[in-house]
Amino acid sequence: MANHDSLKYTPRAIGLHWLIALFILCLMTVGFTMGDLPKGPDSPRGMVFNWHKTFGLITGLLILYRYWWRSKNPPPILPPEIPQWEVRLANVSHRLLYACMFLMPISGYLGSNFHPKGYGVKLFNAIDLPAWGWPSQELYDIFNGTHKAVALVLATLIALHVVAAFKHLFSDSGVFRRMVP
């Protein structure tokens, strides 16, 4: 196997990748289960939803920063032994991952602003963001439905991304080692 150290991601790219991956994994775990929390005055439901929204917005800002930074610092090229069909598939899947990562916080934020009960966004369970939307079941359903649908697509893309990473871990292409510290 050739030495592909010059094809490694920078420490900043690696750090952003793993930090965002951790946040998304936590957000999706909570997101897929928080709807089952009981409602009521003694329930942690509202607090969990508010923390989900807070970390969703933080993650959205990190994704914007990562996208901006990546536009100024293109990723290293793939090793020449990677087949072109894999290169094309990697490019398409990364574009789809970014599209989903953009849509998730946007649709969640918009859904919150049009919640029919006016819940809005309460950062850190303490700071109410100004609500600029109005109670609308129709708009809430559109944005919340988009949020849920994109979550399923994102989960599928992440699963494929992990499978591809393991494929590269067990090959001798060096691709997997590019994204580990």
Counting DSSP H or I runs of 4 or more residues, the number of helices is 4
Largest sheet: spatial strand order: 1-2
Mean pLDDT level: 92
Taking the alpha carbons of the first and last residues, their distance comes to 20 Å
Give a short account of the largest sheet: 2 strands, antiparallel
Helix content: 55-70%
List how many beta strands DSSP finds: 2
What overall form do the CA principal axes indicate?
elongated
Strand fraction equals under 5%
Structural class: mainly alpha
The whole-angstrom Rg is: 19 Å
Sequence stretches where pLDDT stays below 50 over 5 or more residues: none
Question: What is the string of SSEs from the N terminus onward?
Answer: HHHEEH
Describe this structure in words.
- The protein is mainly α and 181 residues long.
- It has helices spanning 11-33, 45-72, 84-113, 137-169, and strands at residues 122-123, 127-128.
- Strands 1-2 form a two-stranded antiparallel sheet.
- Helix 1 (11-33) packs antiparallel against helix 2 (45-72), helix 2 packs across helix 3 and helix 3 packs antiparallel against helix 4 (137-169).
- It is elongated.
- The model has no long low-confidence stretch (mean pLDDT 92).
